[in-house]
Design a protein that fits this description.
- The chain has a single domain, classed as Thiolase/Chalcone synthase (Peroxisomal Thiolase, Chain A, domain 1, 3-Layer(aba) Sandwich).
- The chain is 34% helix and 20% strand.
- It is built from twelve helices and 15 strands.
- The longest helix has 15 residues.
- It is globular.
- The relative contact order is 0.19.
- The mean pLDDT is 94.
């Protein structure tokens, strides 16, 4: 059964779908220096607004945008939901922990009254409530591979005929004190900006954002007369079972995930017209990912990472990358690798947006814990 994308809702520091796409292809970056917490130093971040976003509000907004784009209205009683997040409600948990440690006039008891609404899966539940579905609701959590895993689960719900339609993707609001302190302690945060695959890359820039897709069987889309951005062809998921915060040397399990995805999609490496790389701008990820791509693909395949423009939105990054891949398919334009000035690697990086005949694309995500996720999309 063919599974197609009939709606996209996305938001990041570059704006919503059309605005962010136009900003991206014009070479703009949404990364700015911010100091959201006075006790922590100012640093480059990719915020949507002037202060950190709130997860459930972001979820409801991005679902509304996706439904509007797909020309759908609630209730959608049999629609599935697969919306994940790697940090989920961490900002709320940090606030609750602070209040509980230093209660002021019963504030702790008042805040803890609705603590069940802060559980890790509540983004997906909020979306289910919003569309009034009684269908399956999934809430994947797989570090930076979350977004692609969520889309893969939505794809499978349709392929196995459990649903004709699924809202799938990921939402991330990771600008919290603990997240910033943790990444700083690891030495992973950039000091001036995000420069994927650059010889002088500094590390990642944390960003917030969300992207959800309306997935439908082709039959359902045709019945509705829906516009179609592209087709989900297949996916690959593996785990390194190795280091907690570094990729496996040699990238063999990442290679296995790509091979798995290509086989399921009935594609060969020569069929791929564009690769949206994970490209975090950290030393280890970019070196390992470049090695994996060189091992599997022809040297001329166009490659870019959009994290130099959007920052690293952690669990949402694969879903946001998928949205950009679909816009590339739709407009037949390759998005640029913003932030890349002098490459360390001999690969065909897209320096500026350019028209190109695009039929099949891959989106890659490699997360902490060795989570490897790959998604193949095609023009229909």
């Amino acid at each position: 059964m063919k599974v197609v994308v009939t709606g996209i809702g996305s938001i990041c520091c570059l704006g919503t779908l059309e605005t962010s796409w136009q900003n991206l292809i014009s070479g703009q970056s949404g990364i700015r220096v911010h100091q959201p917490f006075p006790e922590l130093e100012a640093r480059p971040l990719a915020l949507i607004g002037n202060k950190p976003a709130e997860l459930l509000r972001l979820t409801r907004l991005v679902v509304t945008l996706a439904l509007k784009d797909a020309n759908l209205l609630p209730p959608l009683s049999n629609c599935g939901v697969a919306i994940g997040s790697s940090r989920s409600q961490q900002a709320v948990w940090e606030k609750l922990a602070s209040i509980s440690a230093f209660p002021i006039d019963g504030e702790a008891g008042k805040s803890l009254k609705d603590w069940l609404e802060t559980l890790p899966h509540m983004g997906a539940i909020a979306a289910a409530r919003q569309i009034a579905t009684i269908g399956p609701v999934l809430a994947p959590m797989a570090a930076c591979a979350t977004g692609i895993w969520s889309i893969a689960q939505g794809f499978e719900l349709i392929q196995t005929r459990q649903c004709d339609m699924v809202i799938a993707g990921a939402v991330e609001a990771p600008i919290t004190r603990l997240t910033l302190a943790g990444f700083k302690q690891m030495g992973a945060l950039a000091k001036t900006g995000a420069y994927p695959f650059d010889r002088y890359r500094e590390g990642l820039v944390l960003g917030e954002g969300a992207a959800v897709l309306v997935l439908e069987s082709l039959e359902s889309a045709k019945r509705r007369g829906a516009k179609i951005y592209g087709q989900v062809l297949g996916f690959g998921l593996t785990n390194d079972a190795h280091y907690a915060n570094a990729p496996e040397e040699g990238g063999w399990n990442a290679i296995a995930a790509i091979k798995q995805c290509l086989e399921r999609s009935n594609l060969s490496p020569n069929d791929i017209d564009y690769i949206h790389a994970h490209g975090t701008a950290t030393q280890l990820n970019d070196r390992n990912e470049a090695q994996v791509i060189r091992y599997l693909f022809p040297q001329n395949v166009p490659i870019s990472s959009t994290k130099g423009a959007t920052g690293h939105t952690l669990g949402a990054s694969g879903a946001l990358g998928t949205a950009f891949c679909l816009m590339g398919l739709h407009h037949q334009i390759l998005p640029p690798c913003i932030g890349l000035k002098e490459s360390e690697f001999d690969l065909n990086f897209v320096r500026k947006a350019r028209p190109c005949e695009i039929r099949n694309v891959l989106c890659l995500s490699f997360g902490f814990g060795g989570q490897n996720a790959v998604l193949a999309l095609g023009k229909i």
